[in-house]
């Protein structure tokens, strides 16, 4: 395609704070970025489907030729009465809101408004082709987003197409023809040793010392600890129960991460019992939140704990930096490696079943120098004699390499 005269008429509409004179190839109409150029003496004017923001204007200005190629092959901008991605997308999110947790709904809405509407919002649903989605997927990866992040973004749009299929708006979900993206393996877990746990807890004082002891010896998630209230703590003689009901994420109190985690009962082990007794002196008399910082209020974001308390402490102790969430991983590996019942560990962590617990943690459990199948030392499998019963006729067989020669 050869380029003729380039033209950009004055924008219809006013964008406060944006100087439209800096853009040569686009204009704004009804809050949407439109291309307006002369190609081979013919005027090319089409909506890009992108909301009129500074970022989108700059993107279209920089990539206007690829936008022309994308838009010229087929008409995608919806007619007045067509069902658009934006219109139906909001309906789809609302329809499925009851199936998801509040924080998941907020995340999906954020993805939809930031990543989907600017690209496909004004397009008719039936006009989207697999090739459009493949191109979009590639651009997301080129932006430096991880494979997992791109996968999560795709899930939102794919869910909208799924609902459109069920409503007979389209026949098939176009994502059926779009290959998945490779995702990096799950981030390695780095549990602490028991000696490191002792060093960490003993190095602190006050609420943070108590917080760490509870975190390391319950396996509770950071958000669950921040949301913990005294009404959910039952202290008995040298033990008790913690009822895990809520979690805090990004300043909002919600249910726990998974359904299996909700309303679970966590046993209060001896180190936790001592920590909670001390913490009660600091915050228990007033009730409410268990863990409060020096100003007497609870935490609303784990990032504050990590940045102000956790990472500086690891640096001071010269312990390799890792996320605060590794307190949970440490509990799991510590208990499994010492032979605790896997079902009990599963329930403490709030996993739906023990297979999840085993698949997540057994590879991190390393017991060096442990003799396997030690019970066989006391059994003569050939004569069915129990060596511990004093069978004096049993003579151990010594095998050397000369005996094990192949003919």
Q: What's the structural blueprint in terms of helices and strands?
A:
Elements (H helix, E strand, L loop, with lengths): L25 E4 L2 E8 L2 E10 L2 H9 L1 H9 L12 H11 L6 H19 L9 H13 L4 H20 L27 H9 L3 H13 L3 H6 L5 E4 L2 E6 L2 E3 L2 E3 L9 E4 L2 H15 L17 H16 L8 H12 L4 H8 L4 H8 L17 E2 L4 E2 L21
Antiparallel strand pairs: 1-2, 2-3, 4-5, 5-8, 6-7, 9-10
Helix pairs in contact: 3-4, 3-6, 7-8, 8-10, 8-12, 13-14
Helix content: 40-55%
| Main beta sheet | 3 strands, antiparallel
Radius of gyration (Å): 31 Å
Number of strands: 10
Structure, explained:
The protein has 407 residues and is an alpha+beta fold. Helix content is 41%, strand content 11%. It has 14 helices and 10 strands. Strand 4 (233-236) and strand 5 form a beta hairpin. Helix 7 (194-202) packs antiparallel against helix 8 (206-218). The longest helix is centred in the middle third of the chain and has 20 residues, at 147-166.
């Amino acid at each position: 395609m050869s380029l003729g005269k380039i033209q950009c008429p004055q924008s219809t509409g006013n964008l406060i704070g944006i100087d439209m004179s800096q853009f040569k190839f686009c204009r704004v109409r009804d809050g949407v970025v439109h291309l307006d150029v002369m190609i081979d003496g013919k005027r090319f004017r089409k909506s890009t489907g992108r909301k009129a923001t500074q970022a989108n204007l700059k993107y279209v200005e920089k990539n206007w030729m690829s936008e022309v190629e994308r838009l010229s092959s087929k008409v995608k901008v919806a007619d007045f009465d067509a069902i658009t991605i934006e219109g139906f997308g909001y309906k789809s999110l609302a329809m499925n809101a009851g199936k998801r947790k509040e924080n998941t709904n907020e995340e999906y809405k954020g993805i939809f408004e930031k990543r989907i509407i600017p690209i496909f919002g004004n397009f008719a649903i039936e006009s989207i082709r697999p090739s459009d989605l493949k191109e979009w997927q590639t651009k997301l990866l080129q932006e430096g987003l991880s494979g997992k992040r791109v996968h999560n973004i795709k899930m939102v749009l794919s869910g909208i197409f799924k609902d459109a299929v069920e409503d007979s708006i389209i026949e098939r979900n176009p994502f059926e023809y779009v290959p998945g993206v490779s995702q990096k393996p799950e981030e390695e877990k780095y549990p602490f040793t028991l000696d490191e746990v002792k060093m960490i807890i003993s190095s602190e004082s006050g609420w943070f010392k108590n917080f760490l002891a509870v975190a390391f010896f319950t396996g509770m998630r950071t958000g669950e600890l921040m949301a913990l209230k005294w009404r959910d703590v039952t202290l008995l003689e040298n033990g008790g129960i913690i009822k895990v009901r809520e979690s805090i994420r990004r300043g909002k109190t919600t249910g726990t991460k998974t359904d299996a985690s909700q309303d679970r009962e966590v046993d209060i082990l001896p180190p936790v019992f001592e920590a909670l007794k001390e913490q009660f002196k600091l915050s228990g008399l007033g009730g409410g939140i268990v863990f409060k910082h020096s100003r007497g209020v609870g935490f609303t974001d784990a990032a504050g704990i990590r940045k102000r308390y956790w990472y500086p402490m690891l640096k001071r102790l010269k312990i390799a930096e890792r996320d605060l969430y590794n307190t949970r991983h440490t509990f799991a590996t510590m208990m499994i490696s010492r032979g605790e019942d896997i079902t009990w560990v599963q329930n403490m962590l709030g996993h739906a079943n023990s297979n999840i617990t085993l698949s997540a943690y057994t590879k991190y459990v390393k017991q060096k120098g442990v003799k396997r199948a030690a019970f066989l030392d006391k059994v003569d499998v050939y004569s069915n004699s129990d060596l511990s019963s004093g069978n004096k006729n049993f003579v151990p067989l010594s095998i050397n390499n000369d005996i094990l020669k192949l003919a």
